[in-house]
Amino acid sequence: MAGRFSPRPTRTTVRGGHVVVPGGVPRPAPAPGLRRAWTPEGPFDLGLVLGPLRRGPGDPTFKATPDGAVWRVCRTPAGAGTLKVTVRGAAVEAEAWGPGGEWLLDRLPPLLGASDEPDAFVPRHRIVAATWRRRPGLRLTRTGLVMESLIPSILEQKVTTDEAYRAWRLLVRKFGEPAPGPAPAGMSVMPTAREWALIPSWEWHRAGVDNKRASTILRAVRVAGRLEEAVGMSPQDARARLELVPGIGPWTSAETVQRSHGAADEVTVGDVHLPGIVGYALAGDRDADDAVMLSLLEPYAGQRHRAARFILLSGRVPGRRTPKMPRWDIGRL
């Protein structure tokens, strides 16, 4: 979920349409972006909706600021774009900058869950029902972008989330480009497919990415156009196309289409923690495997991913009995 962001205060003044920064050096004030407003039907929680797009507290493509705004930086088919989303009463206001700004505003409603069908969900367990009543603003985002969810999902394969978040942060900041518009400091657009392909092997190593994950990303970016086409397919067909790339399996494809497609039924299998969390919450079985998890989620067929989200939001998690997964920083080897 989106966390708090506390930027270092900087004294600036505006004189004659210019921003004067410390030292008295003027620069042009940021140009206003394109704007759009949208009013969701029913309860809406901006953090719950867009939170899954955030890859760690230092994600250079996603920031939540103290004024309640969420900033998102994307590589769209039209180019780089920055999107600022703020809730004002019952309405959502958005502003966008860059070549991809108009593309982002055109797809604002599905990004905020307009194509989702939360009313189709019926709780079947007491703990799920309690969370469903407590968090009614949950909607499933649909970004319409495949590669921006696929690459960080590949980085998250078989490592701790801290390691994956660090790799994503380092690679995007070093090989991406500055965010268009007046985005918060440090925000960057992820590299293009060609730029990912040109990253030297030692830079993957410095970011802590082993050869297996780096090679999978390189195979994926070579066919990035074909993978992006999957956004027009059903989630099942999209997953099948993604899994044609060696190194992309059911875990990675599910994590991708949950975000790119807003896929309500695509539950993640092959996860280290999720089966035990679902098993413990629904049946008191902390040792549940994927088969048990899928059996427990069967009453939610068509809505299994949403059910898993509510279970995670319930906070009912089994206590740890084994050591944490060890962290291996190959960049220091």
TrEMBL record:
The keyword DNA repair applies. SUPFAM superfamilies: DNA-glycosylase. InterPro entries: Alkylbase_DNA_Glycosylase/TA (IPR051912), DNA_glycosylase (IPR011257). Keywords: DNA damage, DNA repair. The keyword DNA-binding does not apply. This is DNA-3-methyladenine glycosylase 2 family protein. It comes from Streptomyces neyagawaensis.
